């Protein structure tokens, strides 16, 4: 797969996002993908075999970088979209695009700005809270690095849970097996020397990384305990780092607190080797890479109990309230004084626990999302990007699969097929100031197969950059489906509609000597507010491979959704008045009107009193919902 990867921002290689960029790029390249890296103008090439593209020099300042990424980059991608199969944004909680011309995964690391007041300047906090999520949600695939981050995206960004995929960060393959490197740790995890440091790796940022409370808690330990476990703080100075350094200077154990500054990869093994314990007191984290790195090395850990840290810690690390200095101090004392047996058990649990964190799995997850090109998600409804012929074959495959399943089990749940048009959207989807039907919307969102039965749907998909090749309407597909059923020996059943029109339509659909197996025609009057089990019983007695439900939207989709668990059929599809068209009782618009999306005008001319109000309301509502999708994404 040819993938464009946004490595902006890179933070000079000195942050967790930098680590994420390096590992994702390394793993995607290792898996055989052809990568093009989009980098900051000051970046340097690290992998000669990769293709690099650098942002303009004027984007060196963060605000200009944000604007370029938001406004200018989408235009460049659109011009070069044939060169790439997908786009990966490594830090979509900091950089986003106005539009996404190609399939895009946007990784969100954390929404710390909603948890830590004053974490950034007022302008940046406004951007992160109100501007960035508006555009980030328009990406085709949202990725969260933890369940905690996903929960925040649902709560603060108002994303739907099903639109966010959790892909945990991982450990480098080279990290495994370093737990006992240099003979510094025995199999039980006990240190070979009495003095073992208490390590914290993080950029020096106040107040978010919570160094000050850690230093204050460390100052509450008995002197002999502190001397046995000097506090080592590793990381580059960041926002308000001087506050942290001042707290260290004022600590009663100032002589035992050491700042290493930024530590490069070559020096990290030595730093880990000196550590007897690891602490992660951050006020909020989207993941916490260094926590699982410590577990990987068999180092006993303590961390905050909020954000994702409690999630990543599991039952391996001791946890504490990061706002409570006494709680931090007490937890450190429990960590230091734990029995060797309990510590060995904790380390063993950690080694099993970290097996779920893999960069290989993370990169495979991203590639899998980018490879999902078969669906355009409109108003949360997955519309298949297929031609009419492909749609017919998909429906026939559902029917054949259902027939095979029936041989194995007496009960089978039919595949749910819907043909989405403006009327469906109007009836189902809500969006201020218009209401909708959440039950109907839920059935459409969870349908097994949805096709575009309307040119407005096709045009909207093209405007959103996820084009559907064309219409696949019920009126066009039903004749083709019936012909394929005759060829394959599959049976059909019709619920609803006029018997005379249905029988006349079937006579017109005969294919030479091949007879279509009609399992039943049931023009019963269906009531949604009543059970009517006799209808389900008649269908199940016939055991059709394909069930056509001709009740009109929204009635037919609501009936199918409510009765699907009780039905014995291969596939069910709502077809409205399709048999009236086939029988010739209702004339369809000329082909040119169908292709141009003007069929609704022809239908109004045919039945003005019945249809004009419904169509007027539908077009206004659909236009409003489409505008929301175009400017900010409908989620």
Task: Give an overview of the whole structure.
- The protein has 635 residues and is α/β, with parallel strands linked by helices.
- It contains 25 helices and 21 strands.
- A seven-stranded parallel β-sheet has the order 3-2-1-4-5-6-7. It has a six-stranded parallel β-sheet with strand order 10-9-8-11-12-13, with helices on both faces.
- Helix 1 (16-30) crosses helix 13 and helix 5 packs parallel to helix 7 (241-250).
- Residues 174-193 have low confidence and may be disordered.
From the structure above, extract its key features:
single chain; about 625 residues; alpha/beta; 7-stranded parallel sheet; 6-stranded parallel sheet; 25 helices
Chain-wise SSE layout:
Layout: E1 2-6, H1 16-30, E2 34-39, E3 51-54, H2 62-79, E4 86-89, E5 104-108, H3 122-136, E6 141-144, H4 147-156, E7 164-166, E8 197-201, H5 211-218, H6 223-228, E9 231-234, H7 241-250, E10 257-261, H8 268-274, E11 275-280, H9 289-296, E12 301-304, H10 309-313, E13 318-320, H11 325-337, H12 340-353, H13 359-370, E14 375-378, E15 381-384, H14 388-408, E16 415-420, H15 422-428, H16 438-445, E17 449-452, H17 455-463, H18 474-488, E18 491-496, H19 499-508, E19 517-522, H20 533-542, E20 546-550, H21 555-563, E21 571-574, H22 578-583, H23 591-595, H24 599-606, H25 608-632
Parallel strand pairs: 1-2, 1-4, 2-3, 4-5, 5-6, 6-7, 8-9, 8-11, 9-10, 11-12, 12-13, 16-17, 16-21, 18-19, 18-20, 20-21
Antiparallel strand pairs: 14-15
Helix pairs in contact: 1-13, 5-7, 5-11, 14-18, 15-25, 24-25
């Amino acid at each position: 797969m040819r993938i464009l990867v946004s490595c902006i921002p890179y933070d000079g290689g000195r942050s967790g996002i930098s680590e994420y960029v390096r590992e994702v790029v390394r793993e995607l390249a290792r898996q055989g993908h052809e990568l093009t890296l989009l980098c900051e103008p000051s970046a340097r090439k690290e992998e000669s075999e990769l293709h690099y593209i650098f942002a303009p020099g004027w984007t060196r300042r963060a605000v200009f970088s944000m604007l370029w990424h938001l406004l200018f980059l989408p235009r460049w991608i659109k011009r070069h979209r044939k060169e790439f199969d997908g786009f990966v944004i490594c830090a979509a909680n900091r950089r986003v695009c106005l539009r996404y011309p190609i399939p895009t995964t946007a990784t969100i690391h954390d929404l710390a700005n909603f948890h830590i007041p004053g974490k950034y300047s007022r302008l940046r906090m406004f951007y992160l809270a109100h501007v960035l999520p508006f555009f980030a949600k328009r990406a085709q695939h949202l990725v969260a690095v933890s369940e905690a981050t996903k929960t925040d995206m649902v709560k603060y960004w108002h994303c739907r849970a099903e639109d966010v995929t959790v892909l945990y960060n991982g450990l480098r393959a080279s990290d495994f097996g370093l737990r006992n490197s240099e003979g510094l740790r025995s199999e039980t995890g006990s240190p070979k020397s009495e003095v073992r440091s208490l390590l914290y790796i993080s950029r020096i940022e106040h107040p978010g990384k919570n160094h000050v409370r850690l230093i204050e808690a460390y100052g509450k330990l008995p002197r002999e305990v502190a001397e046995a476990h000097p506090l080592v703080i590793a990381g580059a100075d960041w926002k308000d780092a001087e506050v942290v350094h001042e707290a260290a200077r004022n600590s009663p154990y100032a002589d035992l607190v050491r700042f290493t500054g930024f530590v490069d990869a070559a020096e990290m093994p030595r730093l880990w080797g000196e550590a007897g314990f690891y602490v992660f007191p951050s006020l909020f984290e989207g993941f916490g890479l260094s926590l699982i790195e410590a577990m990987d090395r068999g180092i006993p850990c303590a961390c905050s109990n909020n954000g994702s840290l409690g999630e990543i810690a599991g039952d391996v690390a001791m946890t504490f309230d990061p706002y409570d200095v006494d709680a931090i101090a007490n937890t450190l004392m429990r960590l230091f004084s734990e029995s060797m047996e309990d510590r060995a058990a904790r380390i063993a649990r950690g080694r099993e626990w970290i097996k779920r964190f893999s960069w290989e799995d993370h990169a495979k997850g991203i590639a899998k999302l980018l490879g999902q090109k078969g669906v355009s998600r409109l108003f949360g409804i997955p519309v298949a990007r297929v031609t009419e012929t492909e749609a017919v074959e998909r429906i026939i495959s559902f029917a054949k699969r259902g027939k095979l399943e029936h041989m194995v089990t007496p009960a089978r749940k039919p595949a749910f097929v819907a043909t989405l048009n403006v009327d469906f959207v109007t009836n189902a989807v809500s969006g201020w100031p218009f209401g909708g039907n959440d039950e109907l919307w839920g059935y459409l969102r969870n349908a097994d197969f949805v096709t575009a039965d309307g040119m407005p749907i096709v045009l909207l998909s093209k405007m959103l950059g996820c084009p559907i090749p064309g219409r696949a309407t019920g009126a066009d597909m039903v004749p083709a489906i019936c012909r394929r059923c005759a060829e394959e020996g599959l049976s059909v059943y019709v619920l609803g509609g006029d018997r005379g029109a249905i029988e006349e339509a079937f006579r017109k659909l005969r294919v030479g000597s091949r007879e279509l197996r009609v399992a039943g025609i049931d023009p019963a009057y269906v009531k949604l507010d009543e059970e009517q089990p006799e209808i389900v019983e008649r269908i199940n007695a016939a055991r059709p491979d394909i069930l056509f439900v001709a009740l009109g939207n929204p009635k037919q989709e609501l009936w199918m959704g409510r009765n699907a668990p009780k039905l014995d059929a291969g596939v069910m599809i709502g077809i409205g008045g399709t048999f009236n068209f086939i029988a010739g009782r209702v004339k369809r618009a000329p082909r040119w009107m169908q292709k141009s999306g003007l069929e609704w005008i022809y239908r109004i001319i045919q039945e003005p009193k019945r249809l004009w109000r419904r169509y007027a309301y539908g077009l206004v509502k659909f236009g409003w919902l489409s505008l929301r999708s175009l400017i900010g994404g409908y989620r």
